[in-house]
């Protein structure tokens, strides 16, 4: 990877395929949207980021310090996805999914944000999850400096939400999920250490997450994958259950190894994107 510093941006070359669209539209993150000037923009770690791909290079509107401290890891830039892709393409159908989503990166999100947003995600489509998340941030997050005219907000701290009631969250329109968000906030604010789960095995961390109210296997696995970077986690929702039927003997797990979560994102993004076109084929 080659990093070049410009006065108002960082230019990143030789990282292999990277697609902002595939990365931010694959259902793993709900706070980045298309930017009027191209690319995508959003908030993570209480910071604004605009990034775009141009002339075979990735550009980030950020400082070198923030790039090294936050965005390099967040965007998973040091992982060689070419090696992973070649292995996964050993299965013809999985190759379709990889080719469709090439450039997708699994983001290293903040564990609390991942937990909260995937609690909100239950039985919801992505536009609604985005809307609920942004309302939650606007109501309870702190303002974030950015170069756009629109005011943006950081994801609310668990301590802030722990002091709220279900009535306070009514404008979020989260329904029954509100009580689970509040319960999780109170547990985390009260000492449930999400970062400490990194040192546990995936199974041990999953078990602890599922002790939280409203956290089942699917939400737990999303937190493991997107918030704790346990790439062997393999979230299964309705789309993935449908996807498994594309293979006569189920998912080709023998190819997944320790990067099952990356394979899951390719499959999920591919199948969900093909829903109206009928292009996914056995």
From TrEMBL:
Domain HhH-GPD, first and last residues per copy: 120-272
Entry annotated with the keyword Manganese: no
InterPro entries in alphabetical order: DNA_glycosylase, HhH-GPD_domain, HhH_base_excis_C, OGG_N, Oxidative_DNA_repair_enzyme
UniProt keyword annotations, A-Z: DNA damage, DNA repair, Glycosidase, Hydrolase, Lyase, Multifunctional enzyme
Entry EC no(s): 4.2.99.18
BP term (GO), one: base-excision repair
Record SMART domains: ENDO3c
Reaction catalyzed: 2'-deoxyribonucleotide-(2'-deoxyribose 5'-phosphate)-2'-deoxyribonucleotide-DNA = a 3'-end 2'-deoxyribonucleotide-(2,3-dehydro-2,3-deoxyribose 5'-phosphate)-DNA + a 5'-end 5'-phospho-2'-deoxyribonucleoside-DNA + H(+)
A GO molecular-function descriptor: damaged DNA binding
Family: Belongs to the type-1 OGG1 family.
Name of the protein this chain belongs to: DNA-(apurinic or apyrimidinic site) lyase
Organism: Candidatus Ventrousia excrementavium
């Amino acid at each position: 990877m080659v990093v070049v510093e410009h006065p108002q941006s960082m230019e990143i070359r030789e990282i292999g395929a990277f697609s902002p669209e595939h990365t931010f539209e694959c259902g793993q993150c709900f706070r980045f949207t298309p930017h009027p000037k191209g690319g995508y923009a959003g908030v993570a770690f209480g910071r604004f980021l605009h990034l775009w791909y141009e002339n075979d290079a990735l550009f980030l509107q950020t400082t070198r310090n923030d790039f090294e401290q936050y965005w390099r890891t967040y965007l998973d830039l040091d992982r060689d996805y070419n090696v992973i892709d070649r292995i996964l393409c050993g299965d013809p159908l999985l190759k379709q999914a990889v080719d469709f989503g090439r450039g997708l990166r699994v983001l290293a999100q903040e564990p609390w944000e991942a937990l909260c947003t995937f609690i909100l995600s239950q039985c919801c489509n992505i536009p609604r999850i985005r809307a609920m998340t942004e309302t939650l941030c606007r109501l309870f997050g702190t303002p974030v400096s950015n170069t756009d005219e629109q005011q943006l907000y950081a994801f609310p701290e668990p301590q802030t939400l722990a002091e709220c009631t279900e009535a306070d969250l009514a404008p979020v329109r989260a329904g029954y999920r509100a009580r689970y968000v509040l319960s999780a906030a109170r547990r985390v604010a009260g000492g449930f250490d999400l970062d400490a789960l990194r040192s546990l095995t995936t199974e041990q961390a999953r078990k602890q997450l599922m002790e939280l109210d409203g956290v089942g296997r699917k939400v737990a696995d999303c937190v493991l994958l997107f918030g704790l970077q346990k790439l062997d986690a393999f979230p299964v929702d309705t789309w993935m259950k449908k996807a498994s039927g594309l293979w006569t003997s189920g998912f080709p797990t023998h190819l997944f190894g320790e990067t099952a979560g990356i394979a899951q994102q390719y499959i999920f993004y591919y199948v969900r994107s093909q829903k109206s076109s009928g292009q996914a084929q056995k």
